[in-house]
Amino acid sequence: MKIICRTPVRINLANGGDTDYYLNEIGWGCVVNATLASHFYEFAINDDDAAKLDVVDYFDYIANPNRTYRLESNVSELDLLKATMKEIGVDIRNSFALRTNVPMQSGLGGSSALNVAMISALLHQKGEEIVPHKIAALSYDIERKRMNVPGGYQDQYASAYGSGFNYMEFRNEGVTVDNMQLSDDVIEKLEKNLLLYYLAKRKYSGSKMHNLQKETAEKDPERVKALLLEKRDNALKIKDALMAGALDGFGRLLLKEGQIKTKLSGTGNEFFEGVMRLALDNGAFGGKISGAGSGGCMFFYVPDEKLEGFRQAMASTGAVEMNYRFQRSYEPGILLKTL
């Protein structure tokens, strides 16, 4: 029996706090994100005893050609799989396959999407029930507590729940996920006017950025707390703008989101800051880097009449526009197939 599980990555539209640090400092946090139907991680368990992992990168197969790792190898590419198998309590010698069309270090939550797919496939093989909330919580524990990778909660829950546009709240009592139920007209307008680009691998990983934010907070805690509250308030405004279909306002709020994030991190990136200036000069209402890291993917909200000129200007930066589609509310995060 062959088991295949596919999970989506997400665009982080607004982050009002999804880490324990936020919870400790301001009581609770929230995010607005949207999962992509077009971009995914796929994990397969093959019906054999070849004891290997095959990796296929559909996004950049020239820079990242297909590769194979023996399970007994001591390489970092196997760390997540080994940690997941240990946590679930399985020790199988099958061959596995990992396939993705998501660029590396993109800031789209790829590692968590992969981990959710791994957990789901391995639990399915054991005959256990697939419950998105429990799988997201287990994925968080594996990445954050077992592997000690700093980061937030949203990526695991986004991939496990799917369904497009979600508003999430993070409190000491737990995580809640509410689908925003945006209309088809609003989603289609966003797919037309919210342009997604891959520019370059992140200068710093998401983990590094979380550590930089912590260092900044320790130097000036009162200033940072005020910024955290401002960022959470802006995230709520972004949610309200989306639900009201006020997309021009949403675009302008994206700009503020990115500006607060830069202040919190205490660091910038000259190249990406230059791209943002170019975007604004060529008609974008706003935009931001996706994820916690300093780079990867950026997205911009551009009105209809500026789209053509904007694309021409962005081409001069070497950025790769990523055609995408948002999941709709009826599309789940975890897709399992047995052959």
SSE topology sketch:
Elements lengths: L2 E13 L4 H7 L2 E17 L6 E6 L9 E4 L8 H10 L7 E5 L9 H17 L5 H15 L7 H8 L3 E7 L2 E6 L4 H10 E7 L5 H14 L1 H24 L2 H19 L4 H12 L4 E4 L6 E6 L5 H9 L4 E2 L13 E4 L1
Parallel strand pairs: 3-5
Antiparallel strand pairs: 1-2, 1-12, 2-5, 2-6, 3-4, 6-7, 8-10, 8-11, 9-10
Helix pairs in contact: 2-3, 2-4, 3-4, 3-5, 4-5, 7-8, 8-9
Features:
339 residues; alpha+beta; Ribosomal Protein S5, domain 2; Alpha-Beta Plaits; 2 domains; 8-stranded mixed sheet; 4-stranded antiparallel sheet; 11 helices; globular
Task: Compute the separation of the termini in Å.
Answer: 6 Å
- Would you identify the regions where 5 or more consecutive residues have pLDDT less than 50? none
Top CATH class of the largest domain: Alpha Beta
- What is the H-and-E element order? EHEEEHEHHHEEHEHHHHEEHEE
Helix content: 40-55%
Largest sheet, described in full? Answer: 8 strands, mixed
Write down the overall geometry: globular
Count the beta strands.
12
Backbone structural class: alpha+beta
Question: How many structural domains?
Answer: 2
Strand content: 15-25%
Instruction: Tell me the CATH topology of the largest domain.
Output: Ribosomal Protein S5, domain 2
CATH architect. name of the largest domain: 2-Layer Sandwich
| Rg over CA atoms | 20 Å
Arithmetic mean pLDDT: 92
**Helical stretch count?**
11
